[in-house]
Amino acid sequence: MTEDQGRRMVVVSNRLPVVLEEVAGQWAMKKGSGGLVTALSPILRDRGGLWVGWSGTTKPLPIEKIKSILGPFSRESGFRLLPVFLSEEEMNLFYYGFSNEVIWPLFHDLQTRCNFDPGYWDTYMAVNLKFARTVMKHHEPGDFVWVHDYHLIPLAGFLNQSGFHAACSFFLHIPFPSPDIFFKLPWRAELLHALLHYKFVGFQTVRDRRNFTDCLRVFFPETRVEGRGPIVRISTGKSEILAGALPISVDSADFIRFSRSKEVEERARAIRDAYRGTRILFGVDRLDYTKGIPEKLKGFRHALKVFPELRGSVTLIQLLIPSRETVPAYRTLKDEIDRLVGEINGEFTTGDWVPVVYRYQSMERAELVAHYRAADVGFVTPLKDGMNLVAKEYVLSQADNRGVLVLSEFAGAAAQLGESCLLVNPYNVKQIASTLARALSMGEGEKKRRLENMRRTLRRHDVFWWVDNFLRASTGRELKDFPEKDLAPILPPRRTDPFVKPTSPGRTG
To answer: Which of the listed residues 7, 115, 369, 498 has the most CB atoms within 10 Å of its CB?
Structure first.
């Protein structure tokens, strides 16, 4: 085997970039969405890599059925999908439990929403062991294993226990909390030890990386941090790792090109025509309590109260993407949003003007980008966010240089775009109101200058920059060092096929 032949990228995440779902008794595949899929799909394409993750269903399916569904996607996308199978109990305790009732709220500084059920931790570890076994079964010498996000923090530790010694790195897509928040976690020491099993740990911002090292210093007083740039070396006595601040992004060139296509241009014109006489604020958020949607609506309501000239002249289009609808906290949040929208529209609607156009649905890409392009203001106000790619997508879609980005100062994207967008504290309704008024009164020259500055930043620091710098920091390689190659086999040579039941000696058939 040549050196290049052993170079494959193995992505491991909670979910595959597709979801298996049953519709009217028939099983089918639905392509996934979200920042990770958007960022990594073009990177893995045609490089013979692997993507390990949960299939999205807990129902037992025949292996041949799974192959028949996932195989065509693997051939089309140019990378192999390797599903991990979870039971209903594992999904409830690992995903809905520890991942989303413990780490998610805690790492977003919302510790009062945490449920520190000890049973969650046991299943979290058991599922990570299951993921590790899948990686061990399919990896080859020379593979680069790239583990993603908070669901799989302990994975490297299990790999190391199994004798896996290849390069294994981790990227945290959500924020990392400060010590006073992190130390509320009953399993704080275990998670810190787990992160020290990786060769490289990446964070979205310098603040997140600093919070991590501050936590390490408390548990390991001998911790030393060397370096002053994006990448630092951390020594904690027995362990030495690298950690970096590397903000994720999107394919900027592709987004710019697509947003200027004839299809998007025509759709954007139709949207503006539909709201002729009013300027458009556009918000798109997944249903989640970290996104600050009620706070956004309250800020908009306050703007209508204190700036009466905005009444009848501005419309907020709020796209709310369904998420975790079976979780009680999310149903409660949805009810609150519904109520606020109703109150605002009930108070301010006139005969030919409705202040909030509220859509609870997903939106296909061309329509979404057309809304970005048509909007006078991109309204992005999470209470806390690792990065927030919506802010970047909005900026890149502004083909007509007519928009202003209003962004929460607690979004990771604020570290890159803060000098040219308008930052707000999402808890401050008065500031949101005054910032919206400022955005709507901004001159054309200033809008263009701010957008050009942000686009320049996003062109330089796009998803390929992110991958190249992550690979360079963690392996000394670049994306070009993972050459194009055929689709990887399901199993490396001389390994037992996990889809075939073993037969007893002397038996046939």
So the answer is: 369
- Which amino acid is present at 478? E
Look at residues 113, 117, 106, 115 and name the one whose alpha carbon lies nearest to residue 153: 106
Backbone φ, ψ for residue 474 (5° rounding): -95, -25
DSSP helix/strand/coil, 20: strand
Q: How many CB atoms lie within 10 A of CB 464?
A: 17
Provide mean pLDDT across the span 109-120.
96
Identify the residue with better confidence: 491 or 447.
447
Confirm whether 151 is a catalytic residue.
no
Per annotation, catalytic residue among 149, 208, 376, 385: 385
Task: Say how far apart CA 166 and CA 145 lie, in whole Å.
Answer: 8
Mean pLDDT, rounded, of the chain? 89
Q: Are 120 and 101 in contact (CB under 8 A)?
A: yes
199 backbone dihedrals φ, ψ, rounded to 5°: -75, -35
Closest CA to 180 of 188, 192, 191: 188
Q: What is the CATH number of domain 254-460?
A: 3.40.50.2000
What's CA 149's distance to the chain center, in Å? 9
Is pLDDT above 80 for 395?
A: yes
Instruction: Return the H-helix or E-strand segment holding 357.
Output: strand 356-360
* pLDDT (average), residues 95-111: 96
Name the maximum alpha-carbon separation found in the chain: 86
In the chain, residues under CATH classification 3.40.50.2000 are 4-248+462-478, 254-460
Active-site annotation holder among 138, 148, 151, 173: 173
The closest of 66, 68, 74, 71 to 46, measured between CA atoms, is 74
153-186 pLDDT, tens digit each:
999 999 988 887 677 999 999 999 999 999 999 9
Catalytic residue check, 193:
no
CATH hierarchy code of domain 4-248+462-478: 3.40.50.2000
CA 319 to chain centre: 18
Calpha distance 251→242 (Å, rounded) = 26
For residue 318, what are the β-bridge partners? 283, 358
